[in-house]
Amino acid sequence: MILSLPSTFLRIGLNALRTSLAICFAINLILISLPRTAHAELNETEIMDLLAMSKFEEVFDKISPLVTESALAMHTMAFFYERGIIVQKDDAKVGDLLLSAANNGHVPAMEQLSKRLFLRDEKEQAIEWDRRAWENGSENAGLFVGRSFLWDENERNSEDLALKYLGRLIDQENKYALGEIGWFYLQRAESSAIVIEAEEYLTKALDMLKRATDAGNGVSSSILSAYFLSQKNFSQAALYGEQAINNNYSELWLTTVALLLMEDNEFYYPQKAFEIFYRFSKPEDHNRNLLNVTRRILFDFYDATSSILILEALNEMASEEPDNFSNTERVELLYYLAEAHEYVDELAKALNYNQDALGFHTD
To answer: CB-based contacts of 219: which residues, under 8 Å, 6+ apart?
Structure first.
């Protein structure tokens, strides 16, 4: 085994994927992808242009007579019911219209139906419509069915089949497809007992995850940060921690702040660290979060010198504004100072801070 990562990253990855799909649901329904072919009495380009110009009544009048026979009309009518434009919102009708359009061979409806089913945790049906869309030539499909071959216990855990369905998306630098296969390779690297095979999987994993990061996948950025942290490569851990935040994934923001506050390193960047800190820390939690940052620097990264600078500044603030610190926070702060000074062989200071901490216990 060449690395060890928290098992929760897979859950985080799946939840983040679900959230991202939810955001995309409304905007993908019609405007992104209309069918390649349309009913003879409907002009695809004309319908698209009218929708883009918000000429909804004109579009509605054109499609209404053809809803029972034209896949384009069905899909477009689903848009009206989903948005509540002209007609009342009706989620059941949205589903029925998408299903009818998909059953009539309408590829964009297959894509949208698959996403809709995924968001409703109807995984098997989502995978099936994703597969049908892919088999009908969709450039946007393949994610759900590809993932099923990577992670689903009921599947054969087939890398080749996964790559078959994810291939088009990977070629497009799709951030989700790259992230899925990258995380899969990383798991394979961890579990392989054959050194050469593990190294090959690790090389592929890092390549895919870096490409996913470049494409804007914050979960992949976070996975890379955690991986490099596990390898004690703090520079790369800080880099990808920042990337995760830039890609709108903030799960590891405290760790990233701690890394950026480590002095005598090329990645030392206090301005950026406190920019991130004040972006994510609530004012009432500042003291607690700063203590958490210093604890990481001191006990996880073994950088006593950097932690002392922050801890002494906090201790000065606590002395000047004692009401802003709880008794527990004061004791914790003093114990951290004692530990930090002991690490750098300043034993007299360590003893003094320990005595101060004991004084709070007895007060």
So the answer is: 9, 12, 13, 16, 17, 179, 244, 249
- Of 136, 137, 11, 133, whose CA–CA distance to 145 is shortest? 133
> Whose CA is closest to 21, among 139, 144, 133?
144
User: Is residue 42 very low, low, confident or very high in pLDDT (cuts 50, 70, 90)?
Assistant: confident
CA atoms within 13 A of residue 143's CA, in its CB half-sphere: 22
Contact (Cβ atoms closer than 8 angstroms) between residue 136 and residue 143: no
Tens digits of per-residue pLDDT, 309-360? 999 999 999 999 999 999 999 999 999 999 999 999 999 999 999 999 988 7
Spatial separation of the C-alpha atoms in residues 339 and 303, rounded to whole Å: 11
How far are the Cα atoms of 1, 2, 13, 37, 204 from residue 189, in angstroms, in the given order? 8, 7, 18, 45, 9
pTM tops 0.85: no
**Those residues with Cβ within 8 angstroms of residue 64's Cβ, 6 or more apart along the chain or in another chain:** 73, 77
Task: Identify the DSSP state of 69.
Answer: T
| CA-based end-to-end distance of the chain | 50
